[in-house]
Design brief:
It is built from three helices and 43 strands. The longest helix has 28 residues, at 328-355. Among the domains are: 17-111, MurE/MurF, N-terminal domain (Udp-n-acetylmuramoylalanyl-d-glutamate--2,6- Diaminopimelate Ligase, Chain: A, domain 1, 3-Layer(aba) Sandwich); 177-328, Hexapeptide repeat proteins (UDP N-Acetylglucosamine Acyltransferase, domain 1, 3 Solenoid), CATH 2.160.10.10. It is of the alpha/beta class. The strands form seven sheets. A twelve-stranded mixed sheet has the order 11-14-17-20-23-28-31-34-37-40-42-43, covered by helices on one side. A ten-stranded mixed sheet has the order 1-13-16-19-22-27-30-33-36-39, with no helix packed on it. Strands 12-15-18-21-24-29-32-35-38-41 form a ten-stranded parallel sheet, with no helix packed on it. Helix content is 13%, strand content 30%. It is flat, with a radius of gyration of 26 Å. β42 and β43 (326-327) form a beta hairpin.
């Protein structure tokens, strides 16, 4: 780690380039059985209904089997149960899990653009800022006093890194990310464009005829291997820390309030709101537009349905949905009963109208 000195250079990170694979090589990489022409080549991937010659697609669900008849794909990854589906593809690779096999091919088909370490001359460094080896820092980045940037970090244009912030090794920050003072990022964190990490939480006390702001002196700690989507906001703690556990993935447009602690390997989908001091256990999954009331606990491995309103604790391993959220089967029964009640009311109104 060295003190920051700007040098000529531009940040890398261009688009990946594609290369070709034969059906035979695809079968080897996927561990599947090849049926058809082993020498046919592909240079890209596509969904089955839009695939064209030179692409590989996958078929793992019977619902999409009819699409294979009109697909232009050269190679299809297919389950044993659907391997004989009618279609003009030149080669079929039979695997247990086509989608997983397709994901395993992507690093071989799409080669990332080469790294281009360098610091753009427009970058502004605060006093005592430290920058690691082989970093890429783009135009108009601002790095505050005593901030620490780890080795091989990639920082896009117009990122703002506050005073005292720590950025771990191999972190990637896309353009216009803001890291407020008090933020710490572990290794291999990815934060997409426009995210704001470590801003003050929404905390006030009504006193002397006005809303008095509660000072926020806690940190915002993002552990290793976390990915945070575009325009997501995560507040720093007031007197405690806000923590996102290692390996957790957070979608776009999520709000995480002050003092929240999210465990390891969680999934939080778009437009979720997590209120202050909530606790999310390891491996929990929260679907889109769900709201979690503050000071409650979502147990490890729990699943929260889309648009659920969680107003209490959720036990570990359970699936809850609805508003107010309750165990999923109970929520379904309540929805069904309400639907039936609506029909009963209409029939009653008709009967009363007929008697009038």
């Amino acid at each position: 780690m060295t003190s920051a000195v700007a040098r000529d250079g531009q940040s890398g990170g261009g688009a990946a380039t594609s290369r070709s694979l034969t059906a035979r090589r695809i079968a080897e990489l996927a561990g599947g059985e090849l049926r058809g022409e082993g020498d046919v080549e592909v240079t890209g991937v596509a969904p089955i209904e839009r695939a064209v010659a030179g692409t590989v697609t996958f078929l793992g669900v019977a619902k999409y089997a009819p699409s294979l008849a009109t697909s232009g794909a050269s190679v299809v990854l297919v389950t044993p149960a659907l391997a004989d589906t009618e279609g003009p593809v030149a080669a079929r690779v039979v695997v247990a899990n086509p989608q997983e096999a397709l994901l395993s091919l992507l690093p071989h088909l799409y080669v990332p653009a080469p790294r281009r370490p360098g610091i753009d001359p427009t970058v502004r460094f605060g006093r005592g800022a430290q920058v690691g080896r082989e970093v890429e820092i783009g135009p108009y980045v601002v790095i505050g006093d005593e901030a620490v940037i780890g080795d091989r970090a990639r920082i896009g244009a117009s990122v703002v890194i506050g005073a005292g912030v720590t950025v771990g090794e191999d972190v990637q920050l896309f353009p216009h990310v803001t890291l407020y003072p008090g933020t710490s990022l572990g290794a291999r964190v990815i934060i997409h464009a426009g995210a704001r990490i470590g801003s003050d939480g929404f905390g006030y006390v009504f006193a002397r005829g006005a809303h008095q702001k509660i000072p926020h002196v806690g940190r915002c700690v993002i552990e290793s291997d976390v990915e945070i989507g575009a325009n997501t906001t995560i507040d720093r703690g007031s007197i405690d820390d806000t923590v996102v556990g290692a390996g957790t993935k957070i979608d776009n447009l999520v709000q995480v309030a002050h003092n929240v602690r999210i465990g390891r390997l969680c999934l939080v989908m778009s437009q979720v709101g997590i209120s202050g001091s909530a606790r999310i256990g390891d491996g929990a999954i929260i679907a889109g537009q769900a709201g979690i009331q503050g000071h409650h606990t979502i147990g490890a491995g729990a699943r929260i349905g889309g648009q659920a309103g969680v107003l209490g604790d959720v036990p570990a391993g359970e699936t809850w949905s609805g508003y107010p959220a309750r165990p999923h089967r109970e929520s379904l029964r309540s929805s069904a009963a309400l639907f039936k009640l609506s029909g009963m009311i209409k029939r009653l109104e008709k009967l009363l109208g007929d008697d009038a």
